[in-house]
Amino acid sequence: MDIVMDAEALNAFLGREFPQVAGEYRVERVDPDLLTARLTVGEAHLRPGGTISGPSIFALADLAIYCAILARIGPVALAVTTNASVDFMRKPEADRDLRAECRVLKLGRVLAVAEALIYSEGGTEPVARCSMTYSIPPKS
Questions:
Q1: Mean pLDDT over residues 63-70, rounded?
Q2: Which residues form the Thioesterase domain (predicted)?
Q3: How far from 66 is each of 42, 96, 105, CA to CA, in Å?
Q4: Domains and CATH numbers, the chain
């Protein structure tokens, strides 16, 4: 799949369109097979028990998948999640950032399907697996 937005362009887009999350999440790498994004973990992402909250993990996966799709179709702010599934597989490390490795599995005219594996920084085993479908609005 051709890449039309690199990491720099995606981060600029996030800063413009979603300034509320741009400081916490960033795209680190984009290539035809893989997009890598990071959540800089802070106090707001933690929950009792010394772990990172499920909503924070979901948000990273959603952002990574959204950006992986935009990397291929361009800056379409109104592409939206239509289906999501998350498997929480192990406890993430509370004192480490989270890293998402995302792959687009199918990119059609109106739907895109992708998956993300979420890791604690430095870890080799995923803490979560996410699968999402996005609806792509028609070109006007």
A1: 97
A2: 49-126
A3: 22, 23, 13
A4: 7-135 (3.10.129.10)
